[in-house]
Specification:
376 residues; Rossmann fold; 2 domains; 6-stranded mixed β-sheet; 5-stranded parallel β-sheet; 14 helices
């Protein structure tokens, strides 16, 4: 399966280094190797920092011969990785292309070296989405994506037993390997406990105070742990969209997971799927076109809420409300359409009805058609 970022990555490699970040097992290595005909993990151009012989070769300043594209995988685990890459790039940039992948935010882990400013383009690879599966997605596509999530391996297997085992192994590797390699955290068992409780918090405002009581640790500790899990692409939070004249919520953030299939609640899982699709849209526009994109939500002092607002260059593009069934237009859309500068509203659902309500600047639309229209 050709991934949606393949052409963008290939084009950017002609100009600079490319950093490709994203969750563990989302397909970064597969995409990278697809750029070299017939390549697999044994190809000399693929350099995995976890292998001792690769580490030794790179620290000695050597690169494999006769390879125009060099792929560095997980090199961010090295304390001075940015200085090492800077040296290779400045020496070989006229003859080699460099693709750097990692299962953590490569823009965050900048340990001990040059910022590499101006030397790279950054892309974030997301799980499979409806439009990536099918340019005209169906209800069957939606059902499978909700059930197995968007990570390629469990989705393509479509086997419940395999999905359960894959989930358990992935969480263990994220915390036992990635986290311990990158962060100074001793309370590994509590982080496992925290990660296990987060699926119950999806689609709601995350209360750090409640979590600190459950885990018996300080507020700052819980907040730091959540931030670490965000940096490892396990979860993400979205802040509110400020509407001061409506006394809107300003600080609390809503929580979602990169793997929505972990959500036990049907409506929360659907909202998480939509959140992930919209975040993918924002990241794609930001990484490929350079626009300042943001995903937000709206909630006022009286509890009226819009699930999502997509913001481009500090101006709202559209808002989205999620419904698992075919329902009439949300009262919240009608309310906020009259009192905000949001230009249009979508109520996405799992049914078939598709109609507009002009006075509310709104469209009630199946989520499959919405994704087809938005190309996310």
């Amino acid at each position: 399966m050709k991934r949606y970022l393949t052409n963008s990555v290939k084009a950017d490699l002609a100009e600079k280094m490319v950093f490709l970040g994203g969750p563990r097992q989302v397909g970064k290595t597969t995409l990278s190797l697809s750029l070299i005909k017939g390549a697999d993990e044994s190809h000399p151009a693929y350099l995995n920092w976890d292998l001792r012989e690769v580490r030794q070769m790179l620290l000695e300043g050597n690169l494999p011969a006769e390879q125009s594209l060099i792929i560095f995988d997980e090199i961010h685990k090295y304390k001075h990785w940015r200085n090492l890459l800077k040296g290779f790039y400045d020496k070989y940039k006229s003859r080699r292309h460099f693709l750097i992948t990692g299962s953590a935010r490569l823009d965050h882990y900048r340990r001990g070296g040059d910022s590499l400013q101006g030397r790279y383009h950054y892309h974030r690879l997301h799980p499979l989405s409806l439009y990536e599966l099918n340019a005209k997605p169906t209800k069957s596509d939606l059902s499978l994506l909700l059930r197995y999530g968007g990570f390629p391996e469990p989705f393509l297997k479509q086997n419940v037993r395999h999905w359960k085992r894959w989930q358990r192994e992935r969480q263990s590797r994220v915390i036992q390997e990635d986290l311990i390699n990158l962060e100074r955290v001793k309370e590994v068992s509590q982080l496992h406990l925290l990660a296990g409780t987060l699926p119950e918090k999806v689609a709601s405002v995350l209360s750090i105070n409640n979590l600190k009581q459950d885990l018996s640790v300080a507020y700052e500790t819980v907040n730091r742990w959540i931030t670490i899990l965000e940096n490892l692409y396990y979860c993400f939070r979205i802040p509110p969209y400020g509407l001061p004249h409506l006394r809107a919520m300003k600080k609390e953030r809503k929580l979602y997971l990169w793997d929505w299939s972990l959500c036990g609640d049907e409506s929360a899982r659907f909202e998480n799927l939509v959140a992930s699709h919209l975040l993918k849209y924002c990241h794609f526009k930001e990484d490929t076109e350079g626009d300042d994109m943001a995903l937000r939500f709206v909630r006022d002092a009286n509890g009226r809420e819009l699930d999502f607002v997509v913001v481009k260059n500090n101006k709202p593009l559209f808002a989205v409300e999620c419904k698992t069934g075919e329902r009439s237009l949300s009262r919240n859309i009608a309310y906020f359409s009259q009192r905000t500068d949001i230009p249009c509203f979508y109520q996405v659902h799992t049914g078939d009805r598709d109609y507009e309500q002009v006075e509310s600047k709104a469209r009630v639309i199946p989520v499959t058609r919405f994704c087809e229209m938005m190309k996310v």
